[in-house]
Amino acid sequence: MQFAIAVDIGGTKATVATIDTAFNVIERREISTGAALDLENALEVATNQVLQATTGDLLGVGIGSAGPLDLAAGTISPVNIPSWRPFAVVDFFRAMTKSENVVLHGDGMAVADAEHQLGAGRGSRNMLGMVVSTGVGGGLILNGNLIAGESGNVSFFGHHSINHTGIKCTCGRVGCVEAYASGPSMVRRACELGWSGDDFISLAESARKADERALQAIDEGAHALAVAIINVAAINDLELVVIGGGVSHAGEVYWEPLMRHIAGESKEISFLHGLKIKKAELLRDSGLLGAALGVLRAQ
Ligand SMILES: [Zn+2]
């Protein structure tokens, strides 16, 4: 059997997995990236564990990481992992696995690639694939091709500003969509309104019970995301947006306001009236499968 190692690095966790050429996940390990621990060591231990549990030929390592990243240098500096400024992730995996075939993508690119090749975006030519969870990220397929951009940071979706006089984001800019539309941002807003709780799952639960503060915070976050989606869809004249990530799994309590605001924001843009919005099909594996595609596509 031939397989790839896939690495999906996000703001709160990183997942390492072995994936075969039919895109089955063979072994996986998760580590926390939020705590102050020796992240490189944890990543090495997890990688060795999945390697030891998998027999066959290693084809290479595909990495999808939260940005920003530098493709030419093979380094990453995820906004939510301050200890990596930067981290030479490509050299790290080359040295550890003795494989020269190490491919780095942005996490939004990986998700867009996976949904386009294997999920809800199959057959589409112009789409945005995105994740809404601890952060907000996205990647673009234009004319059927995955777009990387000059440095690999194309569609740095979460940190485009939707309000230049708005609130300050963890990245340092003002008014980034992530500062309004991520799970933690909606939780923070709900707490300002008097709600108490500490994660998006309980916020969605409160909203389902008609808690006004929870409903308002989710409505505002969904509206911010709708503005951002319509900005990117209009700039790139897209046909499809595929949305995944933890927040998108909250069900109607999130999708009803999101779809309502998308309809409102696109009302005056006639060429977007046919824009399709779909839920991601690959769910929690889209980042991993997209990372693996960097290696397995050519097989
Ligand atoms: Zn930002």
What does this protein structure show overall?
By secondary structure, the chain is an alpha/beta fold. The chain has 2 domains: 2-106, ATPase, nucleotide binding domain (Nucleotidyltransferase, domain 5, 2-Layer Sandwich); 120-280, 2-Layer Sandwich (Nucleotidyltransferase, domain 5), CATH 3.30.420.40. Helix content is 36%, strand content 22%. It has helices at residues 39-52, 89-97, 107-118, 178-181, 183-192, 200-208, 212-236, 252-266, 286-296, and strands at 2-9, 13-20, 25-32, 57-65, 69-70, 75-76, 102-106, 127-132, 136-142, 145-146, 240-244, 276-279. Strand 2 (13-20) and strand 3 form a beta hairpin. The longest helix has 25 residues, at 212-236. It is globular and about 55 Å long. The model has no long low-confidence stretch (mean pLDDT 94). The site of zinc ion (ZN) has 6 residues, from loops.
Overall geometry comes to globular
Largest sheet report: 5 strands, mixed
If you average the pLDDT, what whole number results?
Answer: 94
Rounded to the nearest angstrom, the radius of gyration is 19 Å
Q: What would you call the structural class? A: alpha/beta
Q: Please, what is the CATH homologous superfamily of the largest domain?
A: ATPase, nucleotide binding domain
> What's the structural domain tally?
2
Distance between the termini: 12 Å
Question: Which ions, cofactors or small ligands are bound in this entry?
Answer: zinc ion
Strand content: 15-25%
Tally the helices.
Answer: 9
